[in-house]
Design goal:
Layout: H1 3-35, H2 55-69, H3 79-93, H4 96-104, H5 109-126, H6 135-151, H7 175-186, H8 190-200, H9 205-229, H10 240-260, E1 303-313, E2 323-330, E3 335-337, E4 341-342, E5 347-356, E6 363-369, E7 380-387, E8 398-401, E9 414-421, E10 427-437, E11 445-455, E12 458-464, E13 473-476, E14 481-485, E15 496-502, E16 505-511, H11 514-528, H12 537-540, H13 560-571, H14 579-595, H15 607-620, H16 624-640, H17 647-661, H18 674-696, H19 698-701, H20 710-722, H21 732-758, H22 768-792, H23 803-827, H24 837-847, H25 857-890, H26 952-971, H27 976-1011, H28 1022-1041, E17 1043-1046, E18 1049-1052, H29 1056-1086, H30 1094-1107, H31 1117-1137, H32 1141-1164, H33 1173-1192, H34 1197-1200, H35 1203-1223
Antiparallel strand pairs: 1-5, 1-9, 2-3, 2-4, 2-6, 6-7, 8-9, 10-11, 10-16, 11-12, 12-13, 14-15, 15-16, 17-18
Helix pairs in contact: 1-7, 1-15, 2-3, 3-5, 5-6, 7-14, 8-13, 9-10, 9-11, 14-15, 14-16, 16-17, 16-18, 17-18, 17-20, 18-20, 18-21, 21-22, 21-23, 22-23, 22-24, 25-26, 25-27, 26-27, 26-28, 27-28, 27-29, 28-29, 29-32, 31-33, 32-33, 32-35, 33-35
């Protein structure tokens, strides 16, 4: 090792040794504060701090929640709770900010719980109401499940462990616990504590009170020296020098008053006396009561005596069965008696309790025997003993010779008894001394002295006579100095001497024992409060180390230098130390210990630490401003290292210092030093920078709004720091501008952090799809950040009403940074690409719901960018739909669509993530598998072919129109005028397109009907049914696609609904006309058999002639059956192929009415003619079957039994009767009455 290294090592060792000595000296002062506090108490109203979460616990919690999400726990939960836990796990537990919270040491399990609670409250409030289950019940259930997940199943079986010292630091601590805590804080070893404890006599209350009095005397002397030598600190004003000395004196007087208010002895009765002061100049406490001196009546002592009588020996003159007993009394008190005993065994073990005010009481114990004579008036006294006990008398039982009456045979009568006299708390020492003085006790004489403490500052040496309560003489010890002295010549009595000296008085004392002298000097040394400590003469003598007797070994062996070091620490005068420096070290180490313990303290001391620091400051005169300035420095050191510190704590200390600097005297100190002001200005500047940095990094300094209320407190503190003095408030604009600058920087920081988190590198050379994908993901993250800001950091509005506006400006600045990347990504997208619409929907759906961001700068820019795209998209869609209608109807086969997707174009639709609608792509469309029916009356669970029977062109048209309108609706365009324009345009377009569809369908229908057959072979083509279905679908879609809501009044762009109704009527009429033509053909064939016609005669003759040779079929059956078959089959076709029941019933009613009318007209034309049998039979069958078939199809009776049917029924009934009269069985069983029984 080189010489330079040796020098550095030696320098380091010396520095460590000096630091260790300073820590030990601080520990001595702390020990005395703990042992005998008289200024402070441990506060009981402080907020209990929660246990902090460390890295290992965070990882364990993550694993527990992940196990729950994977279904590896026994906790039963519904889907909503699982989703809430998943969101909590992803957004909080896995976030970097949660890890930072844990690393900062300010995160507790309660913080984790509050974040989850805040998250689920928003979710539960958005859930629909459930009958019988309140949302508060759901919240409570979810919180209980959260606690079960957080604790883990194994925690319920884990045995409780013994609490560590750190875990009880939040409680009120005992002295032993405080000693142990500050041993850890100052690095003091256990044996060092034991040596210092014994050396300081911490278990001796009187010594501690005497130490306080010496300390206060030293502080007063220091104040006098400062005033005399003018060694003042440098103040901001020279007028403060005199005030400074007065403050020092006042602080000492206040401490003396606090000490005086305590009971005389800690732990004893609250025995207090009024303090009376003499007018001596050397008195170290002058309260102005110069005329008051201590009187004899002020000294009151109260003693408790216990007299225990055990047995008597030497009783021989009495018979064995003679009864004996004892009495006991204290002079001036009551008399007590023991139980009776036989003379052969005089034993009692009886105790009597007495109280007396005599320091030298007289105790009498007598022995009696009973007299059995009739004339005996009193019992016989056998002996007595008189004792004068003191507090120093032996406590154990001893034999005492009793004084017996004359002529008593029991000359050696002895009694065994014990007299225990307790020492009262205000009696510090007692004993017999020789004494003489110049003022009192001028005669050298042995007296019984008692050192009495009247109050904390008043002691008196009182001499007493036997059986006297008041002292004979009284010497007030105030101002005296006690010390050992050599034997005085000419004084007889006493072996060792000591004296008490005061200006104008000298009192010499002597006793017979050296140990007794040491005890007396120590007791009087504590009582006088003198700074000089008397040393026994033998300790002053220098002895030869080789020849001298070795000292007895101490419990812990120390070499002379170590022993001397301990003595130096204990005997050091506190007033000679710079307690400001020592306290700064003590407070810094205490805070370091506090920040490293197991509690999330946020910089708050524990109750025990607050108590010790308060007591130290009061006892050793540490200025309040210095204390808080040091505290602020230490707290800011931790805060600058990313540790969580409660801003309320900073605010309290800063406000105290500011109030002191501006002369408001928060602690009664009116003096302000230059050093304090300079430090305050430095701290103010540093604190300003710190607070601005915290507000700039508010997402990371106050993650998820924790600690609770910290952001609000930080804003309030910043406003306080900006104040020039303690009364003038900060202008609102100044505060607002400062915060606005901070939040602008925060926007840049948050956005750059977001890019790093998403691992997105903005590169203009990347593919357009990749850039768009990145912008979509980045947009989702930006929305999440802004939502978190609003949820967790909006508490600032409680401090400032305009905080929400600043937060909105911050959001706009944040989105402005995103806007730059967004514009770059949109510029590289190919023309007529619609993949950017999902990005617009994502951003717009968030912005339009935010009252501060809706139609803000970014929102308007977003609209400006996408307006041309939307207009272009709708233009192309309109053109495409029009072309598809034209091409589709030209090539239309009018086949019904059995499957919506199988008959449309097969171009797939683009998948749009996180959106409810898939956008149609040019030039043609196909419905995705997940898209449901579009009509409003679609029934769930019914297949599409059962509902939709339109053509491919019409279905394609309706789906495109609906998809386009849904697309525009899902855009939720925020600007009302443009949104209304889009809606009007789409409704008008739909109306025009549907009008064209209806007209093209009508044209195709007319062409189809012209080509149709006119005979009974005619069957309604499927294409005609499809055309009917197209009109029905158009009718249904019209209410959705063509109606515009305007002030709750439905306004149509065109009368498309009227057109559809008229077209429907025309198509039905055309079809009915076709059916009527077929019926007319049948009736025309029946007209050949009219009566009087040539063809009728030929047919009748031919039938009769043929009937002679062969079996001729019944005339009219073929024609009727053919027509009935025609009707039934067309009914079935229409019923099966046309989907709307209402239109089917209308069609059947018109068909039936027209048919009956045609037959009625035909019969009316032949009123003058009798129907031919062939005609009659055919008409009966046609009419009856038609009536029955249409009734089965649902035609109502009112329509069935119309006037035409009644006319036909009556005519055919008459013709039937006439034929029955003329021809008999010519009708072959056909009848209008019984035709219902025939086979159909």
């Amino acid at each position: 090792m080189t010489r330079r290294q040796q020098w550095k090592e030696r320098e380091r060792f010396q520095k460590e040794e000096e630091e260790r000595k300073m820590n030990l000296q601080i520990y001595v002062f702390v020990l005395r504060c703990i042992a005998y506090p008289f200024n402070a108490k441990q506060p009981t109203d402080m907020t209990r701090r929660q246990q902090k979460v460390n890295k290992q616990q965070l990882q364990t919690v993550k694993e527990r929640f992940l196990a729950f999400l994977n279904g590896e726990t026994q906790i039963v939960a519904d889907e909503a709770f699982c989703n809430a836990v998943r969101s909590y796990y992803e957004s909080f537990l896995k976030s970097e900010r949660a890890s930072r919270m844990v690393q900062s040491g300010g995160c507790s399990a309660n913080d984790f719980r509050e974040v989850f609670k805040k998250n689920i409250e928003r979710r539960v409030r958005s859930l629909p109401e459930i009958d019988g289950l309140s949302k508060e019940t759901v919240l409570s259930s979810w919180i209980a499940k959260y606690d079960a997940i957080y604790r883990g199943e194994e925690d319920t079986r884990r045995p409780t462990q013994r609490a560590h010292m750190g875990s009880v630091s939040e409680l009120i601590l005992s002295k032993e616990q405080l000693y142990e805590m500050f041993q850890q804080i100052l690095g003091v070893r256990k044996f060092e504590h034991q040596l210092l404890y014994n050396g300081c006599q911490l278990d001796n209350v009187d010594e501690q009170a005497a130490q306080i009095r010496r300390e206060l005397d030293g502080r007063l002397q220091l104040a006098e020296n400062i005033a005399r030598e003018r060694r003042y600190p440098k103040f901001i004003s020279a007028d403060m020098e005199v005030l400074y000395v007065e403050e020092l004196r006042s602080s000492v007087n206040l401490l003396m008053a606090n000490l005086e208010s305590l009971p005389v002895s800690k732990g004893g009765p609250d025995f207090k006396q009024k303090l009376k002061r003499s007018s001596m100049n050397n008195s170290f406490l002058d309260l102005g009561d110069e005329g008051d001196i201590l009187s004899k009546s002020d000294v009151v002592l109260s003693f408790t005596l216990e007299i225990v009588i055990v047995e008597v020996h030497g009783l021989k003159s009495l018979a064995p069965n003679q009864v004996v007993y004892c009495t006991m009394e204290v002079e001036g008190g009551e008399k007590l008696q023991t139980d009776q005993a036989e003379a052969s065994r005089p034993q009692w073990e009886t105790q009597g309790d007495f109280t007396t005010t005599h320091p030298l009481p007289s105790v009498k114990v007598k022995l009696f025997t009973e007299r059995t004579g009739v004339l005996a008036l009193e019992d016989k006294e056998l002996g007595r003993v008189v004792l004068n006990p003191t507090t120093n008398s032996p406590k154990q039982a001893e034999f005492h010779r009793m004084v017996v009456p004359r002529n008593s045979p029991d000359t050696d009568l002895r009694i065994k008894l014990a007299v225990r006299m307790d020492k009262p708390p205000n009696m510090k020492h007692s004993g017999f001394l020789y004494a003489s003085g110049q003022r009192l006790r001028k005669r050298w004489k042995k007296r019984y002295f008692v050192l009495v403490q009247v109050s904390q500052y008043t002691f008196a040496m009182c001499s007493y006579r036997e059986k006297k309560a008041e002292p004979q003489e009284l010497m007030q010890l105030e101002g005296y100095t006690v010390d050992y002295c050599d034997p005085q010549p000419g004084l007889q009595g006493g072996c060792v001497f000591f004296n008490a000296v005061k200006e104008g008085d000298l009192v010499i004392f002597a006793c017979d024992d050296e140990q007794d002298r040491v005890l007396w000097v120590q007791a009087m040394y504590r009582a006088t409060g003198q700074s000089y400590k008397p040393v026994p003469p033998q300790l002053n003598r220098t002895t030869n180390r080789k020849e001298g007797n070795p000292k007895p070994p101490t419990p812990i062996s120390l070499n002379p230098s170590q022993r001397q070091g301990v003595e130096d620490l204990i005997s050091a005068t506190p007033s000679r130390f710079d307690h400001s420096t020592l306290f700064r070290v003590l407070q810094k180490k205490t805070l370091q210990h506090r920040m490293n313990d197991s509690f999330s303290c946020l910089g708050w001391f524990s109750p025990g630490q607050v108590f010790v620091l308060d007591e130290y400051c009061a006892r050793y005169g540490v200025r309040g401003c210095h204390r808080h300035l040091s505290y602020l420095k230490d707290l800011m050191d931790y805060s600058e290292k990313s540790a969580l510190v409660d801003p309320t704590l900073l605010h309290y200390s800063y406000a105290f210092c500011a109030s002191h600097i501006h002369g408001n005297r928060p602690d009664g100190m009116g003096t302000v030093t230059v050093e304090e002001k300079e430090q305050f200005e430095s701290i103010r500047s540093r604190l300003m920078t710190l607070l601005m940095n915290q507000i700039t990094h508010f997402r990371y300094c106050f993650p998820f709004g924790r600690p609770d209320g910290a952001l609000k407190a930080t804003l309030s503190l910043l406003e306080r720091v900006l104040m020039r003095d303690i009364t003038t408030p900060v202008p609102s604009e100044e505060m607002k501008n400062l915060l606005q600058k901070c939040l602008e920087k925060a926007a840049q920081i948050n956005y750059s952090q977001l890019l790093d988190y998403a691992q997105i590198k903005v590169d203009p050379e990347e593919a357009a799809d990749k850039q768009l994908e990145d912008m979509l993901m980045l947009g989702e993250l930006c929305i999440e950040v802004l939502q978190q800001n609003d949820e967790h950091h909006s508490e600032g509005r409680e401090a400032f009403s305009w905080w929400s506006d600043l937060l909105a400006d911050h959001a706009e600045a944040f989105l402005c940074l995103y806007r730059q990347n967004l514009d770059s990504a949109l510029q590289v997208q190919p023309a007529d690409s619609w993949n950017t619409f999902p990005l617009f929907q994502l951003l717009n759906n968030f912005l339009r719901t935010d009252p501060h961001l809706c139609n803000g700068p970014f929102h308007k820019h977003l609209q400006d960018v996408f307006v041309p795209l939307v207009v272009r998209y709708i233009d192309l869609m309109e053109s495409s739909i029009a072309q598809s209608i034209h091409r589709g109807f030209e090539q239309e086969t009018w086949q019904p669509v059995r499957s919506l997707t199988n008959n449309l174009a097969s171009v797939p639709l683009p998948k749009v993530p996180n959106l409810s609608l898939t956008l149609p792509q040019m030039p043609s469309f196909s419905a995705p598998a997940w898209m449901g029916p579009l009509c409003e009356n679609t029934l769930h669970g019914i297949n599409l072919p059962d509902i939709f029977n339109g053509s491919a062109t019409s279905e394609d048209l309706f789906w495109k129109l609906d998809a386009l309108q849904m697309f525009v609706l899902d855009l939720n365009w925020p600007e009302p005028e443009f949104a209304k324009h889009l809606e009007q345009r789409l409704k008008l377009m739909a109306s025009d397109m549907m009008e064209a569809c209806v007209k093209r369908t009508k044209s195709a229908f007319d062409a189809k009907m012209q080509k149709a057959s006119k005979s009974t072979e005619f069957r309604v083509p499927l294409s005609v049914c499809t055309m009917f279905n197209i009109l029905m679908d158009a009718k249904k879609q019209c209410s959705k696609l063509c109606v515009l809501d305007c002030s709750q009044e439905q306004q149509y762009h065109s009368r498309i609904d009227v057109l559809i109704d008229e077209t429907f009527k025309e198509m039905i009429s055309s079809l009915i006309s076709k059916f009527a033509v077929v019926l007319d053909g049948v009736l025309s064939k029946l007209s050949r058999y009219d009566e009087g016609t040539f063809f009728s005669s030929i047919l009748s003759f031919t039938v009769k002639a043929a009937a002679k040779y062969v079996e001729v079929p019944k005339p009219g059956m073929d024609l009727a059956d053919t027509y009935i078959t025609f009707v039934r089959q067309n009914q079935d076709i229409l019923r099966d192929r046309i989907s709307d029941e209402l239109y089917i019933e209308n069609l059947f009613e018109q068909w039936y009415s027209s048919s009956m009318k045609a037959v009625c007209v035909w019969l009316t034309d032949r009123l003058d003619l009798q129907l031919h049998t062939y005609q009659l039979k055919t008409l009966i069958k046609i009419v009856k079957k038609t009536y029955r078939d249409f009734r089965l199809q649902g035609v109502l009776d009112g329509t069935l039994n119309n006037r035409s049917y009644e006319t036909i029924y009556n005519r055919l009934t008459v013709e039937e009767a006439t034929a029955a009269v003329k021809a008999g069985g010519a009708l072959q069983g056909l009848s209008m009455r019984d035709s219902d029984e025939e086979d159909i």
